Here is the input.
Amino acid sequence: MEESDLQSLVETLAERLAATATRPVEEDASRWLGEAEAVASDLTSGPLPPDGVVRTRLGHVEHLLEHVDGTEDADADAHVEAARAALDDALTVLDARD
Here is the structure.
């Protein structure tokens, strides 16, 4: 995959996490999602950094999302699942580059 594909996946991840902020999400999940959104959004603030940095930050997002079992809001849950899918795809792109 090309760099633009990875960039697109990271942007999708950040957008889906940001979308949970507008939903009535359970308080504990909200904290984890907010931190994950901040890390993912930081990656979208300019050109992607080197793959190692992207992998580290995505690993942090993955760790944060492991603490989110549910949000008590169906729309937010759908955004979280879409974010997880984009995250998995982005990590797969990075793995293919190794």
Observations:
- The helical segments are 3-20, 27-43, 51-65, 74-97.
- The chain has one domain: 3-97.
- The chain has a mean pLDDT of 95.
- The first helix runs from residue 3 to 20.
